[in-house]
Amino acid sequence: MSEPLPMSAGKLGSVPLDALRLDPENPRIPETHRSKDTAELATMLEMGFEAFPVAQSIAELGFFNAEPLIVVPSPDEAGTWIVVEGNRRLTALIGLAYPDVRSGFATPERWEDVAKKRAISPKMSIPVVMHQSRDTTHAEIARVHVVGKLAWRPFMQARYIAARVEEGRTIQEVADLIGIPKSKAADLYRDQAVLNQAAELGLETSQVESAFSLLTVAMGSTKIRSHVGAPLGSQTVIGEAPVPSEKSEELKEIIQWVFGDNEHEPLISDSRQISQLGNVVASDVGLGALREGKTLEEAKQRIQEKGLDPLKALTLKLTTARNALAAASSDVSEFAMDAEIQKLVEDIESLAGSIRSTIDDVDAESVV
Q: What SUPFAM superfamilies does its record include (predicted)?
């Protein structure tokens, strides 16, 4: 006789829509915007996480019983439940059911149109899986979002892992809980700790959060990690800053070079250039060039020039200049009347004329 499959700790049931609350601890919601007000959270989730397509599906096809929300009792309101999994679906239901809430959405007109297709009442029963505490929901939620078809972005995964570690779990326990290798969980834990440390240093990290995968690639580079003194994920000490205090300036540099800031554009345009940045940072010559404000390409060129004989170095410089001008020539017509472009062209003409004069003078002298 075969053994029955183990069951989830949750219990299937149904709850009226007006007894459901959005989760202020949802990893999608930034720390600075967390609130217990469901209307406020709905507005934020609608703007940032595309609840409208879900609302369209519900209006046209209904709410699928096969996709119950995962809920736990609210500690603040008797008889209500916090949705710990399914907040985008709940946002869609709230937008369809409550005219006063959807009126505060970014595009209330389209919500009004879709709400006319299906009447959603605050008293409508919604299928749920009831848990008595968040602890028993972690495995279900994590396997959906970390390794399942609705995967969280790396930043959300990292925050989830950090939250479980903060509760007292080990990295191994969290890795087992969500079904990923311990090494990956450790790396993500380290990366979110690096991000937190950057924020504590006063750096603007919103752009890092939105492109967190770049940070994970950067921290995967041995040379960049060495530059900031960050450990391997497996060697990260829980609760301690991963970057030594004496490397704070180096961390600021890497954040600026990879992500840019209010005054500087990033030096890279995609993750494939991270390895190039690592090579440059590992070179005293390249690092010095970056600190002078040179671009990544200029820093790479300076490294190439180091050790070359003068003729090869000059040839490399002139070849790079020629290639850059050739690439720019196709765009000049579009901006030909721009004053800055005209000034740059004049400077280039002047420099080219000076180089030509030098060559002509040397030719004349050689004839004599």
A: ParB/Sulfiredoxin (SSF110849)
